[in-house]
């Protein structure tokens, strides 16, 4: 990273579990695109259309043609709000299957890169720092213990509608990680030059402060 580079350039956040706060992104002058909203958007349309998750040609066609509008607090596909839909267990289960389709990944990587042509963006996702933006100015890999991740997800009503059993969620997350880490296309792992931030037992404010210190150190 150029020592004089500023936040107008690209950040990459690899993620298994972390905290986010829109106000802090705004204070450091960047916009954000979440792969967890963009990519699942394609999965929602696939499920709604009754398309088999292993039908690569059909899924790729949807990824290519669907208009996915991503904002800080909402997601729409072809004008239909799917903000809640993309956080359901059904979409989580479908995620690993669709993510393994090479043609779909190629299309989505191209779209994600297009969003950052002017810089000034933070992009979050499991392969952002390794595949989508391998030359990003700042790479952060947010992680947490398996128990912590399961507890957060189980207690997130936005995800399931109601609190879920921690043990059940832990099993789902472990399987998702295994599938993502072993897939041939864009596997999950921390980039060698990524700054790993362990969020276990930390508040949102603590994590934000740690991330900002890491970015400031890169900026100098």
Detailed description of the structure:
With 220 residues, this protein is of the alpha/beta class. The protein has one domain: 3-Layer(aba) Sandwich (Rossmann fold), CATH 3.40.50. Helix content is 48%, strand content 15%. It has helices spanning 22-27, 35-48, 56-65, 89-99, 102-115, 128-132, 146-154, 157-160, 166-182, 204-219; strands spanning 10-15, 31-34, 68-70, 75-77, 80-81, 121-124, 138-143, 195-198. The chain has a five-stranded parallel β-sheet. A three-stranded antiparallel β-sheet has the order 3-4-5, with helices on one face. A hairpin with a 2-residue loop joins strand 4 and strand 5 (80-81). Helix 2 crosses helix 4 (89-99), helix 4 runs parallel beside helix 9 and helix 7 (146-154) packs across helix 9 (166-182). The radius of gyration is 17 Å and the shape is globular. The termini are close together. Mean pLDDT is 75; it is low at 1-11 and 17-29.
SSE topology:
Layout: E1 10-15, H1 22-27, E2 31-34, H2 35-48, H3 56-65, E3 68-70, E4 75-77, E5 80-81, H4 89-99, H5 102-115, E6 121-124, H6 128-132, E7 138-143, H7 146-154, H8 157-160, H9 166-182, E8 195-198, H10 204-219
Parallel strand pairs: 1-6, 1-7, 2-6, 7-8
Antiparallel strand pairs: 3-4, 4-5
Helix pairs in contact: 2-3, 2-4, 3-5, 4-9, 7-9
């Amino acid at each position: 990273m150029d020592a004089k580079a500023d936040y107008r350039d690209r950040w990459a956040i690899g993620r298994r579990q972390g905290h986010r706060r829109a106000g802090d992104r705004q204070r450091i002058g960047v916009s954000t695109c979440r792969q967890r909203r963009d990519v699942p958007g394609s999965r929602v349309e696939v499920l709604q259309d009754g398309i088999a998750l292993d039908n690569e040609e059909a899924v790729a066609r949807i990824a290519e043609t669907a208009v996915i509008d991503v904002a800080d607090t909402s997601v729409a596909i072809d004008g239909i709000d799917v903000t809640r839909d993309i956080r359901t267990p059904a979409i989580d289960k479908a995620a690993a299957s669709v993510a393994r389709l090479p043609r779909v990944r190629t299309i989505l990587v191209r779209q994600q890169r297009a969003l950052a042509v002017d810089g000034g963006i933070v992009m979050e996702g499991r392969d952002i720092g390794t595949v989508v933006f391998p030359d990003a100015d700042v790479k952060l890999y947010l992680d947490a213990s398996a128990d912590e991740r399961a507890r957060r997800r189980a207690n997130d009503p936005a995800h399931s509608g109601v609190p879920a059993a921690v043990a059940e969620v832990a099993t789902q997350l472990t399987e998702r990680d295994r599938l993502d880490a072993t897939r041939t296309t864009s596997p999950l792992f921390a980039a060698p030059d990524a700054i790993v931030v362990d969020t276990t037992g930390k508040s949102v404010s603590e994590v934000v402060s740690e991330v900002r210190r890491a970015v400031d150190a890169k900026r100098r």
